[in-house]
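Here is this case:
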Amino acid sequence: MSGIENNLCRSDSSPKHSCPSEPGATGDKPAFKPARAARFLVVLLLLTFPLATEAQTSQDLLAAGRVDQALQTLAQQIRATPTAEAYNLLCRAHFELGAWDAGIPHCEKATALDPNNGLYHLWLGRIYGEKADRAGFLKAAGLAGKVRAEFERAVEFSPNSWEARTDLAEFYLEAPGIVGGGKDKAVSQAELLAPLNPAMAHWVKGRIAEKNKDNTAAEKEYRAAIDASKGGARAWLNLAGFYRHTNRLDEMEQALHTMESRPLDHPTALVDAAGMLFRTSRDAPMAIRLLRRYIALPNTVEEAPVFKAHTLLGELLEKQGNRPAAEEEYRTALAMAHTFRQAQDGLKRVTR
């Protein structure tokens, strides 16, 4: 059960390309490397000075991956004016960090203050779902009922939200019947989703076919989603995900190469594709290229936090043996989200 499934000029060249010594350098004194020094100055500036302008909202900060600043801004806002929106955004900031226990009370507060807001119920269901994915059996079963209830409320209050219907359909598909799941319910949601977002309706039908072990029908639905989205990147990503599930890794890689040149309807596709390549140890240069493209976008999104893109880029560079470049990426991630454990661990590995 799912909780409902990034260019500064940085060099990934090897250290042998470092700059020569400055005039006057003697003996064993290390050569001054201005390019690397400039890069670390950028990181220092990220750490030292606020990046947000007064015009930037907390939601802008979340979309830019500046979660530390978002947390600070939202805490100040709640002390002054505790609105449902502020609590919902504070929950989402913790969600970016994977801090489910810290975020849940804020999502609950948002729904208490504005009980008829479908978006707030959707995010509460999502964070319950993420916690359930990582809980023991009994606790997960208890949380699953809460996930279902919140997703159903999200659809009740926002019946035209394709995001809410997609998340509810995925819950129905993945959850056992004892907690309210069922493939028949997922099919019904797919039909209701079709006029709202035809491509996502085909994606849900593809997932259902996979669940039924009908890979021929599943692939047909994923390709229908590509057609419905006019060849959008996300649909190509989902086809690649199907090939990964079925261990057709060459076809997965080819689908991702095709995705790279298709219309970027959802920027998250770049980060998710890079993650897929990293986890399957395929085409690291492409994964690095996709992440750098995402980081350079003017419209990065909350669903793919920029600090996580920097962390994944660090892991790829580390795997290639480029520890200085990896260190830079980890430090950049931590300048945005200083408690992010994955970046903390990466930095420890490359600096020990």
In short: The radius of gyration is 22 Å. Confidence is low (pLDDT under 50) at residues 1-55.
